[in-house]
Design brief:
7-stranded parallel sheet, single chain, alpha/beta
Length: 597
């Protein structure tokens, strides 16, 4: 009996794919990945029975990427999905895993998207096509999708395609694929119609069945907060302020994110440490010991680094980054609520990640309830209570005789009451973490509206009558100018750019500043302080099927203008395509910059 596969290096994947897996935080294969990848690499047909959220996208995407001929731009892989949302998700996963494969191109095709755009990209060529059955059939009938060079077909969520009435369409498509192609069928269940399709179209398939855990521990209270991008750090800070916790384990996807977030929390005064795979075993053990002996209260960890971690005082698990699959979520929150003790799990979810939230709920068979974000008034109340308790604890534990004498001296010398002296001392102590936090100073960090509404609002704010208002509003914070590698020739519009950045980076569209679209590139002003993780993610975000490949140019024009003497003229926004100009009064006063609470 062969030993179980515990490392991706054991799966005969090439260095570019292994490098990507390290970068995205995959440090060991899930059960379905370990079982399926060898069969698909060997060219076998496959039937995979596993629930959504077990990591099956990587289970078929990685081996099929490995077998691609990148010099051939005809479709070599066709993935059929039941919904447009899943088609986009799978296409994004292929693009992410192939980031170190030069020249790779994946194309999602689905109903509701412009046929003209799809035709243009099909003419350019794509190695992988991900689509819904109806739109794939349209292109096959038009002969705009040619499958002569097809090597592999994937049927993803076949039982869902059956439920939606697509199974006959799938049968029709498979009949028009080359007879020597490889077929992989994935389904949570295996009803008879799907077995008939498998029997008709698969040749001696290997069968993989993964039993997933059905539920998480009942002693863990599970909640989620819809927040993303630049606002997540502020959301985490608010949770740490108001939650009654002993110790917290904060999960992120990458080693870089673990180090960066731990440093930011330390800068805010928390006792915090990172835990990730690049640390030596001795350093990791020391960090765990510090957590056990109360020297550290917060550990920011990656999944593999925290595997097997058993510290009784962990009262909270916070999923700062949503996990890639339900199994990882179950493992994460299992670090709290141990030995029958109560625990709390909080999950940060971006609007575009709500589907994964539903997958986790389905896999765990437990609801995850939305949490009410704590207001500044609630935070101030918790700070005040802690402040009072700290004073009482100090009075009970310390000899304060010398300090009584100091207060008495001030009282007699300055004719000031002891109450006024105590108030002044309290003010000095709380300056770093004010007990009174004005609501108006907080940055908006929630976005509970549906993604479609968020996108509609983002698009509406780019209309000419409102563009100057947004540019003016964005000057409240320090702005940096960035270059995007999409322009007029790609069909990019301000609506596309605002929508992509607002949805993918979690930056409220009000804080997206001046946009200039040139022939083959564009520029946009965004708030300074973007994290490395969001910056890297934005590089891969696509507008009109083209990656943004964002790069930093420097301070924006309004930011540079603040360093010039007042009254030096007006700011001119010019559209290189139209030649039109739009004059805006240069702001003479800079409003106070909003800061994290």
């Amino acid at each position: 009996m062969s030993s179980p596969i515990t490392q991706f290096e054991e799966l005969a994947l090439s260095p570019p794919l292994l490098q990507t897996l390290k970068e995205v935080g995959y440090e060991s294969p899930s059960p379905i990945q370990a079982a399926c990848i060898p069969h698909l690499l060997a060219g076998h047909d496959l039937i995979g029975q596993a629930q959504t959220g077990t990591g099956k996208t990587a289970a078929f995407a990685l081996p099929l990427l490995e077998r691609l001929d990148l010099t051939n731009h005809q479709p070599q892989v066709l993935v059929l999905t039941p919904t447009r949302e899943l088609a986009i998700q799978v296409a994004e996963a292929f693009q992410s895993y192939a980031r170190h494969l030069p020249g790779f191109h994946v194309l999602p095709i689905y109903g509701g998207q412009s046929m003209t755009i799809q035709l243009r990209h099909l003419r350019r060529g794509a190695h992988v096509v991900v689509g819904t059955p109806g739109r794939v059939m349209d292109h096959l009938r038009r002969e705009t999708l040619v499958l002569d060079g097809l090597r592999s077909v994937v049927l993803d969520e076949a039982d869902e395609m059956l439920r939606m009435g697509f199974i006959d369409d799938v049968d029709w498509i498979l009949e028009r694929t080359p007879p020597e192609r490889q077929v992989a069928l994935f389904s949570a269940t295996m009803p008879e119609p799907i077995r008939r399709v498998a029997h008709r179209h698969l040749r001696d398939p290997q069968e993989v069945k993964i039993q997933t855990r059905t539920a998480t521990v009942s002693t863990v209270q599970q909640r989620y907060w819809q927040v993303s991008g630049l606002h997540k750090l502020d959301a985490l800070n608010r949770i740490l302020e108001v939650e009654d916790m002993d110790a917290a384990l904060v999960f992120v996807r990458t080693k870089t994110a673990a180090t960066e977030l731990a440093e930011r929390l330390e800068a805010r005064g928390y006792s915090c440490a990172a835990l990730h795979g690049d640390m030596t075993q001795a350093l990791r053990e020391r960090t765990v010991d510090q957590l056990k002996n109360n020297s550290v209260d917060i550990v920011v960890a990656t999944d593999v680094a925290a595997r097997g971690l058993d510290v009784q005082r962990i009262s909270h698990v916070i999923n700062y980054d949503i996990p890639y699959d339900a199994e990882a979520y179950i493992h994460r929150i299992g670090r709290t609520g141990r030995a029958g003790r109560a625990g709390t799990a909080i999950l940060f979810v971006a609007p575009r990640e709500m589907r994964m939230l539903r997958v986790i709920e389905k896999a765990t068979r437990q609801p995850i309830t939305p949490m009410q974000p704590p207001t500044q008034a609630v935070i101030a109340g918790h700070r005040l209570n802690r402040f009072k308790q700290k004073i009482l604890d100090t009075m009970a534990a310390q000899d304060l005789g010398f300090f009584h004498d100091v207060v008495n001296q001030i009282e007699q010398e300055q004719a000031i009451s002891a109450q006024d002296i105590a108030a002044a001392l309290a003010y000095l102590i709380q300056r770093e973490r004010p007990l009174q936090a004005p609501e108006a100073a907080s940055v908006k960090i929630t976005d509970s509206r549906p993604t479609q509404e968020t996108r509609h609002r983002a698009e509406s704010e780019t209309r000419p009558t409102q563009r100057r208002d947004r540019a003016k509003e964005s000057t409240d914070a320090a702005m940096m100018r960035y270059r995007l590698e999409v322009g007029h020739q790609h069909g990019a519009t301000p609506q596309n750019i605002v929508g992509a950045i607002a949805n993918e980076a979690g930056i409220d569209s009000r804080y997206i500043g001046r946009i200039e679209i040139h022939e083959d590139y564009s520029t946009v002003d965004l708030p300074d302080g973007m994290s490395a993780e969001i910056f890297e993610h934005l590089k891969k975000v696509r507008v009109r099927q083209c990656p943004l490949n964002i790069s930093r140019l420097g301070p924006s024009e309004p930011e540079r203008a603040r360093r010039r003497p007042a009254g030096t003229g007006e700011r001119v926004a010019r559209s290189p395509k139209s030649g039109a100009t739009e004059r805006e009064p240069r702001p003479t006063l800079r409003r106070k910059r909003e800061t994290d609470s």
